[in-house]
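User: Could you check the structure of this?
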Amino acid sequence: MKILKEFYLKDKCSYLDNKKQNLHYTMIDNCTSQHCNELVERGYRRFGKMFFRPICSDCDECKSIKIDVENFNFSKSMRRVIKKASNIQSYIQKPTLTKEHLTLFKKYHLFMKDKKGWKYNETSPNHYYDSFVTGDNEFGYEILYFDNDKLIGVDLVDILDNGISSIYFYYDPDYMNYSLGKLSMYNQILIAKNHNLKWIYLGYYVKDCPSLSYKSHYKPYVTLDGRPTLDEDYIYTDKQDYKKE
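Assistant: Sure, the predicted structure tokens are below.
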């Protein structure tokens, strides 16, 4: 394992209007599963070989959140989503890059541009590879969703010693009636339960950001206190004010 570089970036906040963000980035070559787990537990996210987390001095709205798998129970509505998608096949494998991946990735982001006003930038094969394929090492995987032979969803995850870190999911908007976003999360939870993994790491929950506030619907969950360094212990708490939404 080797740290290639570290840097800090200040920019307009990606989640909240009229705010600035300060991010700490560290690029790691051949990161081990254990080290990745230590970083994720302390609020870092991974894209390729790059790990990052917010370190904003005047804001702590980004809450690292993880689902308590052992105590998670599927409701009737959740089971209906799973049952409705019984004709959809899923496969787990190491991350790959195909023409179908890029076509689906573009289609999804053009849809989100129209639906939610996301900024759209064309993704090159190199950019996709650097973000979602490289850096997988011993722990990175993709869960592919198919309708017969048609790729309709890609779920990028890290399967770590203590849980599954959910990195990114994109899907075919033509299949919205299958609630693929929810389906992918339920499948992650089922995989974790079957392998006795304790957590689903969901990244950041931001109460006033619609694209991230949905994460509080997956109960029970806990959130990280502060921004502990690798030399410090991390503490997750079950704060009731985050459960009253």
